[in-house]
Amino acid sequence: MQNKVITPAVFSFLKKLEKNNNRDWFTGNKKEFKSLETEMKSFFNDLGEEVKIHDEVERVKVFRIYRDVRFSKNKTPYKINFSSSLSRAGAKLRGGYYTHVQPNNASFIAAGFWQPNKEDLFRIRKELELDASEFREVIRNKKFKSVWGELVGDEVKTAPKGFDKAHENIDLIKKKQFIFTRNFTDKEVLAPGFLKEVSNSFKAIRPYFDLMSDVLTTNLNGESLLD
């Protein structure tokens, strides 16, 4: 397949939108927005097809530019980015991919478990309580870290209810999110190879996803929950 590229016009429009984040300006520039939105949807769909070469992707979701301001202190009506998520397919595959395109070197990709439900979160924590050696081995791998760096995400202050705050793996157990991110400059995003670079980065997260999928589809005795 011929990889799509992101054009400079995308960043140019988003920069103007940041300075004119109001409905009147947006309405007057709606035609340009719709053209760029089509371009970005095509890029995100192409990315989904590229990732399908090395993973099972169930759905490509392109997020709308309209902000939900009901519960936000920031009342500007529009996002200043284009973004998309890829959901892995089926109950046996867990985790997801996220791509965020924003000017001024604010673009990034992410992969992992952003808001795991309470059952999944408890299962992950119990696994880490039992033995975190394989988990640490995967995330400390030099090749893995060269792409994704360190595990990030929100965490509780001391320990989740029912867990020992002095446990040797409490640094992992207290996390509420289990995600990795990688940042990109504007120059990197506009480069011809950006789509391929993102896809390759997502491919590099597979050892982590494979481990977590195994954890989340078995009980603590290693017995499958999918039967």
Tell me what the structure shows:
By secondary structure, the chain is of the alpha+beta class. Helix 3 (about 30-50) crosses helix 9. About 25% of the residues are buried. It starts with 7 loop residues before the first helix and ends in an 11-residue tail after the last helix. It is built from ten helices and five strands, in the order H-H-H-E-E-E-E-H-H-H-H-E-H-H-H. The protein has a five-stranded antiparallel β-sheet with strand order 1-2-3-4-5.
Summarize the structure.
The protein has ten helices and five strands; from the N terminus they run H-H-H-E-E-E-E-H-H-H-H-E-H-H-H. The chain starts with 7 loop residues before the first helix and ends in an 11-residue tail after the last helix. By secondary structure, the chain is α+β, with helices and mostly antiparallel strands.
